[in-house]
Specification:
single chain, about 350 residues, alpha/beta, Elongation Factor Tu (Ef-tu), domain 3, Rossmann fold, Ubiquitin-like (UB roll), 6-stranded antiparallel β-sheet, 5-stranded parallel β-sheet, 8 helices, about 20% helix
Length: about 350
């Protein structure tokens, strides 16, 4: 059973004008539960003006640092990000779920890998954790980071990235791109486009020699760069991404509308969580498994409810479902019957899903 723990804020500071870095104090008895892999996230919960609000934020610390830190960029109108950037203080307590997420690959100390990272804005958060981890644990591996921001002042973790570049001289290359400030070299002005990618793949990126690619940022950037690299010959299975979703595509809207019409009344759902089974019957009140289960009294993990964070991931072990939206699971996970319960609409009379995954 995924549960929240009351954790004390060990430290909170401004990394840039609109981004706070939050460090959590993890009691020694929770160290095992809070072990994490690079690229994973924490789900935070707070009561904000009487509302239970939850958000997932990627850890920017490396597992080797024995620290649990997240960076939270304030989003205009964002309830949770405003709360963290404007109200939260050192010494305060906040509810936190143990780390989760599958954005990342295993560390292989003996390997000589060449990693590529593309990030925009706060998309640097999981990427920083990965870069620190792979450089420290794989002495023969290299990392290249292509990082887009609006201005030089808005670059999150610039100082830490520069220190890493000095520490791992020759093994970490960093290229900054600015969209609202002019750089002397034209290549580094503006977002990624065909012209820039052509130069990057000829000059800085050796596609046959690339081991893994990680992308984190707006959906448009992630889709464009991954499609470009795959067209240039990079095997699709080497591309890993995490998205910031700004709007739904036409395809998503149509699928969500079609599934909203699906009759779920009377469908029998069994939830396996914490080794225990919880069974209930769907009603017309909810169209997805997560909301229906919560409505029936189940205590399940969730955060965004938007198909982005994967906190509510489970595996379909019997029956069938269809997802309205999926921005979090990779093709291989979908092929293994993993679904996002917040987006899962049952399409058979009985469905069994397992959260112990």
């Amino acid at each position: 059973m995924a549960e929240f723990h009351n954790l004390k804020i060990a430290d909170i500071y401004k990394e840039t004008e609109d981004t706070s870095v939050v460090a959590f104090e993890i009691p020694s008895e929770l160290h095992d539960e809070f072990k994490f892999n690079q690229g994973q996230h924490l789900t935070l919960k707070a009561d904000i003006n009487g509302e239970d609000v939850r958000r997932s934020y990627s850890l920017c610390s490396s597992p080797f640092e024995k620290q649990w830190r997240v960076a939270v960029k304030q989003i205009p109108g964002g309830k949770f990000s405003t709360y963290i950037n404007k109200e939260l203080k050192t010494g305060d307590e906040i509810e936190v779920m143990a780390p989760s997420g599958t954005f990342g690959v295993d560390v292989m100390p003996e390997s000589s890998k060449n990693y590529l990272f593309f990030a925009a804005g706060s998309g640097i958060t999981p990427v920083l954790s990965m870069i620190k981890t792979h450089l420290a644990a794989e002495p023969n591996s290299t990392c290249k980071l292509f990082y887009v921001n609006k201005t030089a002042k808005s670059i999150i973790f610039k100082e830490e990235l520069e220190q890493l570049r000095n520490t791992y001289f020759g093994r970490l290359e960093i290229y900054y791109f600015l969209t609202k400030e002019r750089r002397d070299i034209e290549l580094f002005n503006g977002r990624f486009d065909d012209e820039k990618m052509e130069v990057l793949t000829k000059t800085f990126i050796d596609i046959p020699d690339t081991s893994e690619v990680f992308l984190c940022g707006p959906e448009q950037m992630v889709n464009y760069v991954s499609d470009y690299l795959v067209k240039k010959g990079l095997p699709k299975e080497l591309v890993h991404f995490e998205l910031f979703v700004t709007g739904l595509s036409e395809e998503d809207i149509k699928r969500a509308e079609r599934l909203a019409q699906q009759n779920v009344e009377g469908i029998e759902i069994t939830i396996v969580d914490g080794g225990k089974e919880f069974a209930f019957t769907m009603t017309k009140d909810y169209d997805n498994i997560l909301d229906a289960a919560l409505g029936a009294g189940a205590d399940l993990p969730f955060a965004c409810k938007g198909g982005v964070c994967s906190t509510c991931k489970c595996q379909v072990v019997d029956g069938e479902v269809e997802m309205k939206i999926n921005y979090a699971l990779e093709d291989k996970e979908v092929a293994q019957n993993y679904v996002l319960s917040c987006q899962a609409v049952p399409t058979t009379e009985k469905v069994v899903v397992d959260f112990d995954v």
